[in-house]
Design a protein that fits this description.
The chain is of the alpha/beta class and about 675 residues long. The chain contains 16 helices and 16 strands. The longest helix is centred in the last third of the chain and has 33 residues.
């Protein structure tokens, strides 16, 4: 009974999660029992002598003039000045005009469950599949789900099987699988291919048991088509089928596309064009012919994202949900490195890493590109964002589908590079997907995204600073300065000062950009934007203090440093908690700690908290320590042995290898 009620609610509301999921049925029983108990107690406690119609007694000692009108309110018809772009020419994104968009359809703040919003009836006339006697079509705009992470494609396929069953409860359904043809997707295709038999076995069992999903439809309620895409789009079946063996065979025949081009949104648009005829209203039944579901399997962000808006509009118009079995996007980064192992054992099997476009998770990067001070923290560049690439995830979200971020090494915590599975992205840290869902990016159009940026300066300056910080790499500073003689020591100090002088203006620029949004920070309600701004501002203040203090300590070394131990000849600059270069630097360092600690306290177990904690691991100040460096040994004369080669032969010479080493092929374009 409860299972049937759950399915009915899912169909009626469009939500995957319902009020009776989990422990909810027991809660309902408990509430019903207590309500019944209250009714019985009320009947027992109420005095039967109390009249059914009590009289209302009014005190007329004070007369109230009910006809007194409230004061007149005057409205100013003067048009409000439209908030335009900022006056910063350096931020190219600000030049985009934001059109007027109704706020009635604002994305729901319920981050945990999909939401269906009824936008009312829209009369569509003269559509390409309607006749002159136009029919009224009710379009329902529904949002899908993002932030679902799984270890394997099979887990995503099992969940999609449930979605297919829900669709079959409504009407006959055609599922179109769209497979990326790149070489890096070989393993996922094989995993899904093996899963198809189980899918159709489960559906067959339900059909044999008389499940209503099948009983109310005529023959062949579920049909499947398989497409392959890369630079071109290739249907793998002559027509739709319900034969699982044909489907599996078609997946196994998908050719590899070595161009590296993946036109995923063009494929979706062609799918809409091919199957929209099934979404017309049947005059006899008053219903559509079939439901259509698109399932995209890809491990990249797509090379034709310029067609995203068209794909969202087309799928929404014909109510075709898009599900994607994809990859996690790196946090705030465009590129990741996929581990490639040559699938042909005749060639060298040592792993190689190829750059692949799999991000970022938001429309624009919302993370500063800064090096961490004084260490090799390359692993911090490749962090799981908790979501898929923006364009594909938005396509799922706005059409009522689900994006599944698949990574075989997914676990909460760190993954070493040597543990990364073949054909998978080199991501070093993963986070709990349930916790990350409340940090969902804004899955909206570019125009709406720009409009939201302008509503709060802390958002605007964060994106601006993220763009500005990606202009170049920051070199690690020099810390060790041997003083073998005065000239070489002063020259080494001067070179280090010149390197610091390059960093200081960059930090100053980023600090000025982010400080301009500080006044709006307290008005920001989104956890994602709060964490993003606090981390960026805290990091740039910390970097600014380190760079300025570093330069000041170098200047001090030229004139005021003297070795306490006369045997020492080297000065070493080490991080220290004490800021000894002035009160202004000390105050800025304290503000940096406040911002970074706030990220850790308010956003635990997130990428922002991990980066903030790593930033605080290195102190913000510097101190000089002294050490001894042995002077270089002067080169001596080399003996030529009178040009005689009298070296005795080896007693046990190394045997020659019988087999030639395997040829190492470079990875293909992934």
């Amino acid at each position: 009974m409860i299972k049937r009620l759950r399915r009915w609610l899912q169909v009626k509301t469009g939500r995957v999660e319902t009020p009776i999921d989990g422990d909810a049925p027991f809660w309902v029983v408990s509430v019903g029992f207590h309500l019944l108990l209250l009714v019985l107690l009320a009947k027992y406690m109420i005095d039967p002598n109390v009249p059914d119609h009590p009289k209302l007694v009014v005190d007329t000692s004070e007369v109230i003039d009910l006809l007194e009108l409230p004061p007149e309110v005057a409205f100013d018809d003067e048009t409000m000045e439209e908030l335009g772009a900022k006056d910063d020419d350096a931020f190219e994104l600000a030049n985009a005009e934001a059109p007027e968009v109704s706020i009635e359809n604002e994305v729901s703040e319920d981050f945990d469950v999909p939401v269906m919003e009824d936008l009312g009836e829209i009369v569509t006339k003269n559509d390409d599949f309607f006749t002159d006697t136009a029919e009224v079509l009710t379009e329902v705009s529904q949002t899908g789900a993002a932030g679902y992470s799984v270890k394997g494609a099979s887990g995503a396929v099992d969940r999609i099987t449930e979605e297919i069953l829900l669709s079959l409860q409504e009407r006959k359904t055609t599922v179109v699988w769209m497979f990326d043809q790149s070489a890096s997707l070989l393993r996922q295709r094989e995993e899904i291919q093996d899963r198809f038999e189980r899918i159709y076995h489960e559906l067959g069992v339900l059909k044999a048991s008389g499940d209503k999903s099948f009983a109310k439809h005529d023959d062949r309620p579920l049909l499947t088509q398989v497409w392959a895409f890369g630079q071109t789009i290739n249907p793998m079946l002559e027509e739709e089928t319900d034969d699982p063996e044909l489907i599996k065979a078609s997946i196994g025949k998908i050719p590899r596309d070595n161009t590296g081009v993946e036109n995923v949104f063009s494929t979706v648009l062609q799918g809409v064009d091919s199957y929209r005829k099934y979404r017309r209203i049947n005059r006899a039944s008053g219903d559509r012919d079939r439901n259509i579901m698109f399932i995209v399997v890809s491990d990249e962000a797509g090379d034709d994202a310029a067609r995203l808006d068209d794909a969202v509009e087309a799928c929404s118009k014909y109510e075709i949900p898009v599900y994607v079995i994809g990859v996690p996007a790196p946090f705030g980064r465009d590129k990741t490195y996929v581990k490639w192992v040559d699938p042909d054992p005749k060639f060298d099997q040592s792993p190689q890493f190829a750059e692949v476009s799999q991000g970022p998770e938001s429309l624009f990067s919302e993370r500063l590109k800064l090096e961490f001070n004084g260490g090799d923290f390359e692993d911090l560049e490749m962090i799981d964002s908790g979501f898929g690439p923006f364009s594909l995830t938005r396509l799922c979200f706005e059409t009522g589908g689900i994006y599944f971020a698949v990574h075989p090494n997914r676990r909460v915590g760190r993954v070493r590079r040597t543990e990364t599975d073949a054909y998978s992205a080199d991501l070093r840290y993963f986070f709990d997907s349930k916790n990350m869902r409340k940090y969902r990016p804004d899955y909206v159009s570019r125009q709406e995204y720009m409009k939201r940026l302008k509503k709060n300066d802390c958002r605007y300056v964060l994106v601006q600073a993220a763009e500005a910080s990606a202009t170049g790499q920051l070199q690690a500073p020099q810390y060790r300065f041997p003083k073998l003689n005065e000239a070489t020591f002063v020259n080494a100090i001067s070179q280090a000062q010149r390197a610091a002088a390059v960093l200081e203006p960059k930090y100053e620029q980023l600090y000025a950009i982010l400080k301009a949004g500080e006044q709006d920070r307290e008005m920001e309600a989104s956890p994602r934007w709060q964490a993003g701004y606090d981390l960026a501002f805290g990091r740039i203040m910390a970097s600014k203090v380190r760079a300025e203090s570093y330069n000041a300590m170098l200047a001090l070394a030229k004139t005021k440093l003297k070795f306490e131990d006369e045997q020492n000849n080297t000065w070493i600059l080490e991080p220290a908690d004490t800021i000894s270069t002035g009160s202004q630097a000390a105050k800025l360092a304290e503000r940096a700690r406040i911002y970074l600690e706030r990220v850790i306290d308010q956003h635990p177990d997130t990428p922002w908290a991990m980066l903030a904690a790593r930033e605080l691991e290195t102190p913000l100040g510097w101190q000089w320590t002294e050490a001894f460096t042995p002077p270089p040994t002067p080169p001596g004369p080399r003996a030529n042995n009178n040009n005689n080669n009298n070296n005795p032969p080896r007693a046990n010479p190394r045997p020659q290898a019988n087999a030639m080493p395997k040829v190492k092929r470079p990875p293909p374009k992934l």
